[in-house]
């Protein structure tokens, strides 16, 4: 069957509603431990995902066009049609029978608050949907003007301000600008899935605008963690058969457990302050991004490894300024990775939450800036070694063996002091341009950023490249960092970045 979006919008909505009525709310599968943890987080308003997609269009968008595109999105993306239910005392996913799309058009005056709202949004877990969309028209002038700054300080504070679109010489024919926000429950998506869904949304909106028929083909599959768990259980068997490996993992876990958060040595949360998840944004221009990439290639490291080294250098500098002076700083960090990397076959259509982390302790010398690229290469070697060996799988396997392993996030979510906190963590998606810009003759995506609500962890470095620019966001918690410290941390990272690439053409 084909839905012709040239028909009257109300008729198209009726067709889609009829199609959705086929869903009987059947049980799908038991939620994995990770998915259950994220549901516990959702109940507390933490670790929720928000995406901000800046758009320019040839003609003004109509609310009904966007709503219709979202109806098609709901129908075509399986992970957007699920909710939770209790089955024999266990949390399961089931198909949602509620086919309403959570969409609102907001006045421009509210754009500064949208990301903050979505990062603490309460979805109806029992009925769905577990995602939402907001649209804000951008009537500001001069937003696409070129800038002379190599590093743009885009926004700061509670939720970030309406960010400028990335300059594009081809936008003359796209004079109408909008901010499209998508919020997600983390149990149904990871970064890969969410970014693809942003791309699906833009493509479907373009098809609605042009009157292109939209078919029933599903845009991906809502895949369980079964393949990951098979690999985890294989690692578990290896650990059980190797006492030396078990001791090594136990010793490493104990070191992390005893590690004091460095930020706690330079900041104590003022009594009575409301704990918030705040963000800071930075972006590099295309020339500086190219220099950074070329320098990383020349030094035989990834951008991720180089940025990790930059974060370590900035933290060491910040600590020294605050009187925490050591010869070596043992910085504990972890890095989110896409676990599909360990699966067999084509994973491009595998949607859902398939994220895990790599733990690292970097022994960072006080003189790191004097030996920066040597240090970056050591970080690179360790990261690559952990990726190739399946360290994330090993950590999950070890977690299954620990006698004190918690089944849910509930206890530690209610008592953050019980968490083993990293000094920082990272999430890097590489170049996301192709994921969100295909098939859009009438729409140009000019910028996309992402954020995750964070009041428990100290801070998260969120970065990717888009249209030749390095885009960065620091998610930080006022439980562990003041805005002044967060600003200083960011500034030192990017000051050092410019310094280490200054000899690059």
From TrEMBL:
InterPro entries: Alcohol_O-acetyltransferase (IPR052058), CAT-like_dom_sf (IPR023213). PANTHER family: ALCOHOL O-ACETYLTRANSFERASE 1-RELATED. This is Condensation domain-containing protein. It comes from Cherax quadricarinatus (Australian red claw crayfish).
């Amino acid at each position: 069957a084909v839905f012709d979006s040239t028909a009257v919008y109300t008729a198209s909505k009726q067709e889609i509603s009829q199609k959705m009525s086929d869903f009987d709310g059947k049980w799908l599968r038991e939620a994995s431990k990770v998915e259950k943890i994220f549901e516990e987080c959702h109940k507390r308003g933490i670790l929720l995902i928000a995406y901000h997609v800046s758009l320019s269009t040839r003609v003004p968008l109509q609310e009904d066009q966007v709503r219709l595109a979202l109806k098609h999105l709901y129908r075509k993306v399986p992970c957007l049609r699920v909710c939770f239910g209790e089955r024999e005392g266990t949390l399961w996913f089931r198909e949602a029978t509620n086919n309403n799309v959570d969409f609102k058009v907001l006045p421009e005056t509210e754009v500064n608050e949208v990301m903050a709202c979505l990062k603490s949004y309460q979805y109806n877990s029992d009925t769905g949907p577990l995602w939402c969309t907001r649209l804000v028209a951008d009537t500001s002038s001069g937003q696409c003007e070129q800038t002379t700054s190599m590093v743009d300080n885009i926004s700061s504070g509670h939720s970030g301000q309406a960010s400028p679109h990335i300059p594009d010489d081809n936008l003359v024919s796209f004079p109408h600008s909008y901010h499209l926000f998508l919020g997600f429950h983390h149990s149904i998506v990871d970064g890969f899935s969410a970014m693809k869904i942003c791309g699906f949304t833009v493509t479907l909106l373009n098809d609605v605008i042009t009157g292109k028929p939209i078919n029933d083909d599903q845009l991906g599959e809502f895949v369980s963690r079964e393949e990951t768990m098979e690999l985890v259980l294989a690692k578990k068997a290896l650990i059980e058969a190797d006492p030396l490996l078990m001791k090594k993992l136990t010793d490493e876990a104990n070191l992390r457990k005893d590690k004091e958060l460095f930020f706690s040595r330079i900041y104590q949360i003022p009594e009575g302050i409301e704990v918030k998840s705040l963000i800071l944004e930075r972006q590099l221009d295309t020339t500086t991004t190219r220099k950074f990439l070329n320098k990383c290639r020349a030094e035989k490291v990834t951008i991720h490894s180089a940025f990790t080294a930059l974060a370590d250098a900035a933290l060491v500098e910040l600590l020294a300024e605050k009187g925490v002076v050591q010869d070596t700083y043992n910085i504990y960090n972890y890095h989110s990775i896409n676990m599909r990397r360990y699966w067999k076959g084509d994973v491009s259509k595998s949607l859902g939450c398939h994220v895990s982390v790599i733990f690292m302790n970097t022994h960072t010398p006080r003189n790191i800036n004097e030996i920066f690229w040597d240090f970056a290469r050591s970080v690179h070697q360790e990261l690559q070694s952990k990726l190739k060996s399946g360290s994330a799988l090993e950590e999950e396997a070890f977690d299954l063996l620990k006698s004190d392993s918690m089944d849910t996030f509930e206890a530690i979510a209610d008592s953050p002091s019980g968490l083993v906190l990293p000094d920082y963590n990272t999430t890097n998606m590489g170049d996301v341009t192709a994921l969100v810009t295909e098939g859009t003759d009438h729409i140009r995506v000019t910028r996309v950023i992402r954020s995750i609500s964070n009041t428990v962890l100290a801070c998260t470095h969120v970065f990717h490249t888009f249209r030749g620019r390095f885009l960065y966001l620091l998610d930080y918690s006022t439980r562990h960092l003041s805005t002044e410290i967060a600003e200083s941390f960011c500034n030192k990272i990017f000051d050092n970045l410019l310094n280490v690439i200054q000899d690059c053409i």
